[in-house]
Amino acid sequence: MNEEPFEFRGRDGAVRRGILTPAEPGRSNGTGIVLLPAGLKYRIGPHRLNVTLARRLAPVGYTVLRFDPCGVGESDGALPAGPLRELWRTVEQGRFVDDTLHAARDLRERCGLQRLVLGGLCGGAVTALLAAALAPELIDGVLSINTAVTFSTDTKPARRPMGRIQARHNFKGYLRKLLAPAAWARIVRGDSDYSEITRTVVATVRSCLGARRRPEHLSHENARFMESFESLERRSVPHLLIFSGNDNRWLEFQEVVLQRRLGGRLAGSAYEIEVIPNANHELHFADWQRELEERFADWLNRRFRDSGRPVRAMSA
To answer: 134: part of which helix (H) or strand (E)?
Structure first.
């Protein structure tokens, strides 16, 4: 398999760098994929997830780029000094959107592509969604893996509200551990997270007693997420959301978006939501990554290769 460096220079003069995995010769279907790093991390993805996806998709006709935005990995530039949590919040607000759209435009022009899909995990998923909503004339689809729907704030986690779904999930886990000697040993040693236990018990009791009416927006909710999500849905831009069943991002998404905004519907006119049971946030095991690859490839084939989705005209 041939892979090659991919570079482009931003308006600030700094060079962004990545790796291009071209479609296998003679098999290109005209669709390109830009895989984004998870937040502030390197372009290869957790446990080389982006590398694995690129090398799985290229032989069946997809051209895949994985790149580092300015200040990340091997790209020029530097991120501003400050607490990591504050930097994460700038990602959730769109720090890497411009770089992402620049990369997408260059990829399309250099490789003669007709369709483009953006994708990423966690912060990368947020960037992909925000970028697609800003440039519907350029982006044809979005893959969101364990996306974040709330902000990383300076508030201590103990003070953040816990939703019913996460409280129920945590409470069931604690009940299962009641007969586990190791769990009691952690309590005796003082190793348990007592603040999390307290938050879980309080949230569970409130839920059982009948919670007050839920506000339309939570204080830590990223409003741009839902605005961008709804923008894609209105424009019928295919959007695949894949969650790990054992990830707090999935519990949070159910509480903030799925139940509040989508009426519990796992599919709409353009979005589809799928869950990989038992997987963790970074899809650590090969079986979990393989299931992600299969679901993503199936969605791509249905939406872009076999569906007859209109091919975008190339600019002169």
So the answer is: helix 123-134
Does 168 share its domain with 150?
no
pLDDT digits (tens, 9 = 90+) for 148-175: 999 876 445 445 555 666 656 555 665 5
Report the distance separating Cα 153 and Cα 245, nearest Å. 24
Instruction: Identify whether the C-beta of residue 65 lies closer than 8 Å to the C-beta of residue 20.
Output: yes
Task: Give domain status of residue 315, yes or no.
Answer: no
Quick one: 30 and 47 in the same domain? yes
Same domain, 94 and 162: no
How many structural domains comprise the chain?
Answer: 2
Separation CA 304–CA 298 (nearest Å): 10
18 and 103 both lie in a single domain: yes
Helix or strand holding residue 200 (H, E): helix 194-209
Q: Residues near 219 by Cβ (< 8 Å), separated by ≥ 6?
A: 161
Compute the distance between CA of residue 84 and CA of residue 77 in angstroms, rounded to an integer: 17
Domain that holds residue 184: 158-209
Q: Answer yes or no: are the C-beta atoms of 31 and 116 closer than 8 Å.
A: yes
pTM: 0.81
Q: How many Cα atoms within 13 Å fall on the side-chain side of residue 153?
A: 15
